[in-house]
Write a structure and sequence with these properties.
Layout: H1 6-10, H2 23-52, H3 57-67, H4 75-96, E1 103-104, E2 110-111, H5 115-144, H6 152-171
Antiparallel strand pairs: 1-2
Length: 176
């Protein structure tokens, strides 16, 4: 018979990988997703603006559904809405991304996730960026807004840049 100490009986069991994250862990993941989504949107927009010489389609959304007029009349609103979309998409991706734990480093400090965990977030985020791009062009731009993208190639490459940036951000962050 194995004897257990009182501390063992009082300690909560270690969560298994299939256990849902605690509200605190989920909150941290969502926060990191928002950060990564904002960063990814800024990097994507910095790439996109000089290449296409036009605002993101979110300015068209603002012009059609919020205020009226032409998209070029609303650069600030279009960019702000684009940031909001990117932050929301980043939070969504972080919510579904498998949890990554930090590792113990020398001296007892916590370090970044393992190399395997880091390398898995990048490709997943690139796939997510491609899915956003296809959804954005087919459903939102061509469907809802009923416009042709000003440069379809740059639109898709921009979303790859978003996915790479989001993946790099989240791959180097942990849940703790």
């Amino acid at each position: 018979m194995v004897s257990r100490s009182r501390a063992d009986e009082e300690a909560p069991p270690d969560p298994s990988p299939s256990d849902p994250p605690s509200s605190s862990a989920l909150s941290k993941r969502l926060h990191r997703g928002v950060e990564g989504g904002l960063l990814g949107t800024v990097v994507m927009t910095v790439f996109r603006l000089p290449v296409t010489r036009s605002l993101p389609p979110s300015a068209d959304f603002w012009a059609q559904f919020v205020h009226g007029g032409r998209a070029m009349e609303y650069p600030a609103a279009g960019l702000l809405l684009h940031l909001l979309y990117g932050a929301s998409a980043g939070a969504l991706f972080a919510a579904v991304l498998p949890s990554r734990e930090s590792v113990e480093t020398s001296g007892g400090r916590r370090g970044p996730p393992t190399p395997v965990e880091q390398s898995s977030a990048g490709p997943l985020a690139v796939v997510f960026g491609v899915l956003l791009s296809v959804f954005g062009e087919r459903i939102l731009v061509r469907g809802l807004l009923d416009i042709a993208p000003d440069d379809s190639y740059a639109f898709h490459v921009g979303h790859l840049v978003y996915g790479l940036t989001l993946g790099a951000w989240l791959a180097t962050r942990t849940d703790d």
